[in-house]
Write a sequence for this structure.
């Protein structure tokens, strides 16, 4: 199993130019678990993720990995413990799957060191874990969206980090591929003990696949904890400004959020509409 | 320090990975060897063939420092520095160009197009025509301006970090301004100066002497090692800034080092030969086609650059009736390829 | 409306300045008698040269600016400009080839050749720039234009290098200027400019629809391809005719529409006339400046506009969000 790494944010403030996105945020990622971050558009989910992986310096406060400030850790050293898959990574034209996955070995290599047997093993193991072995010699450009996303995850795996941060790993994917990717990440968490932190769009998928759900609103953590405790009708109203009904998911037993709009409501649901909507 | 328990992969998977990598490595090696052989052949041809033909033994004896009737002057004083410069300048332009193309993830973002060569040209035209300088003076101006323009473009493109796209566009704007400044300087020139300046502006190896060759060689000894130290990081930049930095690359520092090295090579080579048209632009993409994507393109591009200059200069001198400077040949050959490449790049939306 | 009068006033002032100011200072009395048609004294003769020059600057400025505004509208691209898109170089190469290989010295055929060259390179750059994902983004279009220009320049060089005899003649083709203007040449290009302007102004409404995106424009009942083709034809005629007479003048088509959009907003029915007026003023002003700053020599107007325009171009690039590029 992996050593457990503790990632936390203390009094964190982030922003671009005049705009402050995150202010005074406190957050602790449970080691060895899957954490999902949700929130409305432009609430700073991705910004938070970028800052946790050292891509964005905080205005105030700090991000700590095992008590050490992330932004003062050497880039390569951090990259051996913590990996990030950005939202839309760029694949060099014509590169093969194996070569792209091999790029994940960068933090483990010196300036002039040669490619080692250990590097090959890591790449092979990453391909197996993501079920992309049969794609190994294909060019990344030719792959479907779902396949490509698995290859990118393989690259992050070849990095062999104990913490893996992913920014919306399911965007632009069809629903079956979304489930496939999330299943894959869960497998990794279960088998390797990798701590997974991901920003997700879909509340219900987030609630189903994570152990810890974090909802961001107004630059702060609005609620964090077990999905069943966090995903409530009140939370959805406060964070997304949406009326909803939360029921028990018949397939997983977890919470399932059903949005309430202005149309297509059966009488019983409409009856529960709060004053201002009717 | 990573402790993630690696599940040992299947032997067959491992074999697939290892073999695939070996196969690509072999292709790279073969291409590099063929390119090197071709360069040696072209060097030999350029030294032997000309208005008078000298057999290989004469050429070798001249290189060894022996006195040979006639050959000592023609080969030793004229052809040798010219040929050596062709190799060095070709390598410089190839390296500088492919560095920019890799860094900015766009084959069109070569120094020819984003203003660096244009800046050097403007300064050289100014030095030749307005100040009446020649030789070292022109070189000094070209180097200063090349570095200056690169710095200016870099600074102007800076806004929450440097974005590649912004840098390319600002480079184009600066290049347009420089181009018109060059035109103005040319318009004030007399007939003779004009021809001279035009020749320089297209890039030419005419009248190459040892001091310029030595200068470029020294610059290469300085900057090529720097470039090879950051070569791996440079390659990672192809994945985008975020991914690269998540993999432990210090993006801003890498970019700065790489720009310094590439601009240094380009500026000094330009000062010696003039901006050989499209060379910096052509070498990288040709190298990628030959070697296949994935590995570092620095060495292949340097070899391709050297070979291109050797061939183009030879054609320009002897193959076309009138003597054309090397830049006209690369320009006319390069232009269609450039256009083909834009079409291809835009269609696939891809990078290099 | 008030702005319209202000612009008109500025233009009038500039016309006076353009006639009165130059490398040679002339007294008011000579100006008046010269305007009366006299060219007996040297001063009066100087003025007689400045009058067509002023007229040409007005016409060319208006043509280039409107052409830029229309290109920006058609491509929905803030960086579109006849110069940036490589259209000027297309005209240059066509004329250079005509001069070098076909001994073409008749100015009237030059116009045709220049317009065809401009049109060919416009079509080419646009086609290349709009290939692939996202259509003609500013980056793709600008790169296609810059690369095409670079390619064309190297062809121009290859044509003129072995021909010392025409190098001088061609050199004037590399920088735009209005110095050599005569009424005879102005008359030759006037029909093209007139037709081009008419097409552009008639396209104003379609341009407003196109600004919303092709799909929306089609939804509004616009024949997108036809509208775009017509507007582009007008813009190419304007740019080509202006280039045929003046040589390549860059950045007027870039700067002026942006300035005018700040004043009157994005409605092309207002924008285009304004752009024409302001473009005329800008080119006139640039020409006057070029005559003053390097006395006793003159700096061609194309160089002045490049030095005004390039910083402006950079400003626009910096203002844009990276994603929008």
């Amino acid at each position: 199993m992996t050593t457990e790494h503790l990632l936390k944010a203390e009094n964190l403030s982030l922003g671009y130019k005049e705009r402050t996105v995150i202010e005074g945020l406190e957050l602790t990622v449970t080691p060895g678990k899957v954490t999902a971050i949700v929130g409305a558009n432009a609430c700073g989910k991705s910004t938070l993720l970028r800052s946790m992986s050292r891509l964005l310096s905080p205005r105030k406060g700090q991000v700590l990995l095992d008590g050490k400030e992330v932004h003062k850790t050497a880039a390569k050293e951090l990259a051996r413990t913590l990996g990030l898959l950005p939202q839309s990574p760029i694949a060099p034209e014509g590169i093969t799957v194996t070569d792209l996955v091999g790029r994940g070995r960068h933090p483990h290599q010196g300036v002039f060191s040669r490619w080692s047997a250990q590097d090959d093993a890591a790449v092979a193991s990453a391909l197996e874990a993501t079920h992309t072995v049969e794609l190994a010699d294909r060019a990344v450009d030719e792959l479907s969206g779902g396949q490509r996303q698995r290859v990118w995850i393989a690259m992050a795996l070849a990095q062999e980090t104990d913490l893996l941060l992913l920014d919306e790993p399911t965007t632009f994917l069809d629903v079956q591929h979304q489930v496939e990717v999330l299943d894959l990440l869960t497998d990794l968490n279960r088998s390797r003990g990798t701590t997974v932190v991901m920003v997700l769009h879909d509340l219900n998928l987030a609630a189903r696949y994570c152990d810890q759900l974090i909802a961001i609103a107004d630059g702060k953590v609005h609620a964090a904890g077990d999905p069943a405790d966090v995903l409530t009708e009140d939370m959805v109203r406060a964070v997304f400004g949406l009326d909803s009904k939360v029921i028990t998911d018949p397939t997983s037993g977890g919470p399932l959020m059903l949005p309430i709009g202005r149309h297509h409501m059966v009488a019983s649901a409409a009856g529960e509409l709060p004053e201002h909507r009717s | 320090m990573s402790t993630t328990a690696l599940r040992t992969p299947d032997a067959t998977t491992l074999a697939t990975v290892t073999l695939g990598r070996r196969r690509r490595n072999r292709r790279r090696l073969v291409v590099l060897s063929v390119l090197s052989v071709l360069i040696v052949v072209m060097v030999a041809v350029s030294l032997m063939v000309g208005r008078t033909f000298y057999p290989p033994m004469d050429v070798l004896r001249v290189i060894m420092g022996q006195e040979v009737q006639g050959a000592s002057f023609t080969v030793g004083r004229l052809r040798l520095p010219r040929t050596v410069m062709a190799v060095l300048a070709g390598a410089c332009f190839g390296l500088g160009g492919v560095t920019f193309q890799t860094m900015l993830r766009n084959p069109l973002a070569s120094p020819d197009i984003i203003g660096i060569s244009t800046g050097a040209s403007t300064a050289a035209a100014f030095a030749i025509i307005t100040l009446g300088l020649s030789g070292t003076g022109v070189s000094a101006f070209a180097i200063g301006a090349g570095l200056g323009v690169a710095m200016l473009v870099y600074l102007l493109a800076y806004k929450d970090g440097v974005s590649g796209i912004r840098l390319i566009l600002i480079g184009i704007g600066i290049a347009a301004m420089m181009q018109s400044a060059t035109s103005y300087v040319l318009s004030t020139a007399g007939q003779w100066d004009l021809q001279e300046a035009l020749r320089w502006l297209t890039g030419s190896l005419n009248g190459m002497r040892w001091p310029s060759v030595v200068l470029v060689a020294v610059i290469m000894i300085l900057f090529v090692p720097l470039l090879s130290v950051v070569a791996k990081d440079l390659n990672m930049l192809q994945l985008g800034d975020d991914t690269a930095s998540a993999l432990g690359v210090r993006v801003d520092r890498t970019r700065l080092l790489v720009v310094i090295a590439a601009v240094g090579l380009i500026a000094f080579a330009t000062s010696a030969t003039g901006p050989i048209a499209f060379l910096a632009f052509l070498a990288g993409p040709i190298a990628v086609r030959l070697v296949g994507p994935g590995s570092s393109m620095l060495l292949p591009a340097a070899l391709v650059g050297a070979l291109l200059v050797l061939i183009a200069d030879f054609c320009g001198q002897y193959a076309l009736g009138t003597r054309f400077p090397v830049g006209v040949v690369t320009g006319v050959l390069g232009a269609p390829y450039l256009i083909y490449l834009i079409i291809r790049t835009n269609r696939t939306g891809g990078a290099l | 409306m008030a702005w319209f009068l202000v612009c008109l006033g500025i233009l009038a002032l500039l016309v006076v300045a353009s006639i009165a100011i130059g490398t040679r200072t002339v007294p008011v009395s000579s100006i008046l008698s010269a305007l009366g048609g006299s060219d007996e004294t040297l001063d009066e003769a100087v003025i007689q040269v400045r009058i067509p020059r002023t007229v040409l600057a007005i016409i060319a400025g208006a043509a280039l600016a409107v052409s830029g505004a229309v290109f920006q509208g058609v491509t929905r691209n803030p960086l579109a400009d006849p110069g940036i898109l490589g259209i000027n170089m297309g005209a240059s190469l066509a004329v250079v080839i005509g001069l070098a290989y076909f001994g073409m010295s008749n100015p009237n055929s030059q116009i045709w050749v220049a317009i065809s060259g401009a049109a060919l390179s416009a079509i080419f750059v646009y086609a290349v720039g709009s290939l692939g994902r996202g259509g003609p983004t500013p980056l793709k279009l600008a790169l296609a234009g810059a690369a095409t220009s670079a390619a064309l320049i190297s062809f121009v060089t290859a044509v003129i290098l072995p021909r010392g005899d025409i190098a001088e003649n061609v050199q004037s083709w590399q920088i735009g200027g209005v110095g050599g203007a005569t009424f005879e040449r102005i008359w030759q290009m006037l029909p093209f400019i007139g037709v081009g302007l008419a097409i552009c102004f008639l396209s104003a409404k379609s341009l407003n629809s196109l600004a919303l995106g092709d799909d929306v424009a089609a939804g509004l009942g616009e024949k997108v391809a036809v509208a775009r083709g017509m507007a582009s034809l007008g813009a190419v005629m304007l740019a080509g005719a202006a280039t045929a007479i003046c040589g390549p003048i860059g950045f007027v088509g870039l700067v002026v529409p942006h300035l005018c959009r700040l004043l009157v907003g994005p409605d092309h029915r207002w924008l285009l006339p304004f752009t024409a007026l302001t473009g005329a003023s800008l080119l006139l002003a640039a020409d006057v400046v070029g005559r003053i700053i390097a006395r006793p020599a003159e700096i061609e107007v194309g160089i002045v506009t490049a030095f005004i325009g390039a910083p402006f171009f950079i400003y626009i690039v910096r203002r844009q969000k990276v994603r929008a590029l």
User: Anything to note?
Assistant: The longest helix of chain C spans residues 42-75. The radius of gyration of chain C is 20 Å.
